[in-house]
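Researcher: Next entry in the queue.
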Amino acid sequence: MSTLSYVNVFARDIEALSGFYRELFGFKNIPEIASPIFRGLDTGKSCIGFNAPEAYDLLHLDEFADTRGCKFLLNIDVDSKDEVDRLVPIAVAMGATLIKAPYETYYHWYQAVLLDPENNVFRINHML
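Model: Structure for this entry, 128 residues:
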């Protein structure tokens, strides 16, 4: 059986961006895997990794290093609608940009759409 272990995000400032998600959602650092070009956070079910731009060369991805636009969407699930509503203004105060205020989707989730401080798209979700 396969499982998702990590989603890695390329970041200009791995310390600041990993700190944003760590502080906002209470994710735990994984110090055993930290390096000058990588930080990891344990989300409880999988992990989020943050790669510095130097990782493009390490992974032989230099020619694909165009990170403009919406290339992925992180979805962070929380326990309640109230938690979505509580976290959105905190995220904005921490430097996120609110794209779509909390709303109920046609697939019965309550969610908000935001950009993190490096303009990566993420949603704060609660499945109704």
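Model: The chain is about 25% helix and 35% strand.
Researcher: Noted, moving on.
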